[in-house]
Amino acid sequence: MKIDDFILQMQELLKGSSFAKRTWIVGGVPRDLQLGKTDFRDFDLCIEQRYGASKLAEYLNRKHPPLSYEIFPRFATAKLVYESFSLDLAQSRIELYESGRRYPKTRFARVDKDYLRRDFTINSLYLNLFTKELKDPSGSALKHIQEGKIQTIRAPEEVFLEDSLRILRGIRFATTLGFEIEENTAEAMKKLSFTCLKLSSKNLKYELEQIANHPQKERGKKLLSDFSLSELLKFL
Q1: pTM for the structure as a whole
Q2: Largest CA distance in the chain
């Protein structure tokens, strides 16, 4: 779906609601817009409102019923699937990780704090649905997209110890975007790559499929090998 068509449709649906100017497109869409892409199927929305994900999901289910929708109260998120696109909704929040647990506790926070929970700077842009304001709260997202650099939002070991799947995401982005991994980020990925081997095949599947189905999959395979993850090549 063309980004302009999506924004117009969402503006019409949300006009006059409490979600109107509090809803931001985040993640891959604003990143890829900077790279010239204009057609998308999956949209991540961040709602700067308490319980925003569940409230917006319920609102859209009444106003424009999806093919399916599901709310995940534990994570303050929701997912809606329409014929031509899907929505992943999340309340703007901070995440609190407990040692040894992959899934965090969440607490509402504004966008200027929400970005800290994201994995890489290139995924930390916020595009407002109504004003079309583009926020770069890290101050590095636009610069790193232009430079083609993959770097963690916070100290890399901290980011990867919270969720080891982020290591594989880094390899996926390097493969699909053709970006280079920043030195300190790469060192932490190498040091902690063994933690990926403990992930279930279900958790690994999406990232590996994105690598395997990309024209630059050979680069992806080499990166897996470079980061001591050759064992995962059997899934490709």
Answers
A1: 0.94
A2: 52
**CA torsion sign, 53 to 23 to 118 to 35?**
positive
Residues of the chain with pLDDT under 70: 99-102
Helix (H, G, I), strand (E, B) or coil at 120: strand
Strand partners, 43: 87
Rounded CA separation 214/115 (Å): 28
- Residue 186 tokens, joined: 């790469």
For residue 45, list its beta bridge partners. Answer: 25, 89
* Pairing verdict, β 180-181 and 149-150: parallel
pLDDT, tens only, 23-39: 999 999 999 999 999 99
- Complete DSSP assignment for 20-52: TTTEEEETHHHHHHHTT--B-SEEEEEE-STTH
All structural domains of the chain, each given as residue ranges with its CATH number in brackets, are 1-147 (3.30.460.10), 148-227 (1.10.110.30)
Residue 6 CA to residue 132 CA, distance in Å, equals 12
Element (DSSP H or E) covering residue 145: helix 141-147
Distance between CA atoms of residues 102 and 22, nearest Å: 29
